[in-house]
Amino acid sequence: MATDATRPAPGAGGQFVGLFTPKLVTVLSEGYGLRQLRADALAGLTVAIVALPLSMAIAIASGATPAMGLYTAIIGGFLVSALGGSRYQIGGPAGAFIVLVAATVAREGIDGLILATFMAGIILVAAGFLRIGTYIKFIPYPVTVGFTAGIAAIIFASQISGLLGLTLDGPEPGPLIEKISALWAALPSFNGWSVALAAGTAALILGLRHVNSRLPGMLIAVTAAGVATALFALPVDTIGTRFGGIPSGLPLPALPDLSLAKVEAVLPDAIAFALLGAIESLLSAVVADGMSGRRHRSNCELVAQGAANMGSALFGGFCVTGTIARTATNVRAGAHGPVSGMLHSAFLLAFMLIAAPLAAYIPLAALAAVLAVVSWQMVERHAIGILMRASRGDALVLSVTFLLTVFRDLTEAIVVGFALGSVIFIHRMSGSTVVEAGTPMVPEDRADDSYARHGLPEVPGVVLYKVRGVLFFGAASAIEGVLDRIGSQHKALVLDLSRVPFLDSTGANTIGGLVAKARTRGVRIAISGALDPVRRDLATHGIAAPQVILVPTIPAAIEALEAEGVIAAPAPG
């Protein structure tokens, strides 16, 4: 299957251009005609139909206005596709940000949210040009699964009041325990019409998906709920009663408040937005790669995400990121390239210009049902089952990440989950590094050709140890006691590193300490089979001739020891 492997021109400048060339340029340079435009237009329309109710629902759940959700999808989505490093990425507001955005709005207001979004864009652009995107993709799989499941639980919990039509005394708390307590206290305000609309919307979405997955179930269900509310004058909250509807156009661009005090206040939020946005967008790009066989440019994608967040903030929007569900929809709809994402934004703008007055009739219970369905679909139940059975380490990482996401903080969950996963991996890797003692060193006639038969010398006065696996800080202790196991009759140690693909500074320093101790005891050390990268690392730490003998094979080490007179050559047979 075709790939988008970058072939940069020679030199640093050509490599830089190759890494940060938007996929739009790549697609257009391949040749773009009416057939490709038709495919992108159809895919863009399909995604826009999905994104229209979802963008408003996410914005409302985040404490923003539905119009802000549309501004985010239109401006941010256009820039993500036009500048991004993925052919199929669709940008816009994402459910994963609901908790962070809601907390920022509650603490700093809408102007603080817009400023934090703008600053997050700057951070993402810097991260892209510093090529940090190469490393963000290394987050362990159990962390992403646990994090996504935690986000799903939070999203569902945030929609309970909308699903039940509850009226709370004051703002809805963010933390889960306090939220449940407030919802319980508001239970007497239960609205049966809201429950009926929510249940009907969810049932219609799932039913249409079962009948034909290509049907725009969310838009059809939300439209049906709006029609029913308007025709029967149902006593439920709507976009019109809560927000006064949505505007029929984009606002003029304006810079957010850049006062030093405000910047300092929202800096932690901006960092959290940038971190979560980078992870979410690159995960979405990886999903698109797996579905299409293409390959995205991660650092170019981060730069595009940064530009999209700054652009969104200029037009009164909030956090933009790559959205997995809409990106997957784009791929399945037959998109050819980034033009589909750009057209998706254009279609959303057209919808807003034409149908803005009708949006006032959409009931909030229907949008809550949309997010409830989304949260259910976000949980990777199959992956959770596999990881919980795979190993205790994976199960622990998944569980800790999930619990911290739900009960503590999203950024803390990612950091702790990553650290815990790394420690478990280091422990596993350290167990794979083995130091094996060679066969007993007993006199044997050279004519027996024991080198060829065993690959190990059987020479008096010499002890052999073979190291197998990566020699890094987690496993370096495996060779620390080697010298203590050498008897007084031994004059030389052969350390075979032919099966060591890599060692870090700790491993090299441990070997250096072994060499230093051996010299004080009068034991000569020969290192055999070290690969060129390993030799270079050893030399960097001062482990080279004449301190040690460096040879390609074990027999060559024995011959070198004989040539130096460390051990006696066998008498002729």
From TrEMBL:
The keyword Membrane applies. It is a multi-pass membrane protein. Its main location: membrane. PROSITE patterns: STAS. This is SulP family inorganic anion transporter. GO terms for cellular component: membrane. The chain crosses the membrane at residues 41-61, 67-83, 90-106, 112-132, 139-162, 182-208, 215-234, 270-290, 302-325, 345-374, 395-426. GO terms for biological process: transmembrane transport. Residues 452-561 form the STAS domain. It is found in: Membrane. The keyword Cytoplasm does not apply. Keywords: Membrane, Transmembrane, Transmembrane helix.
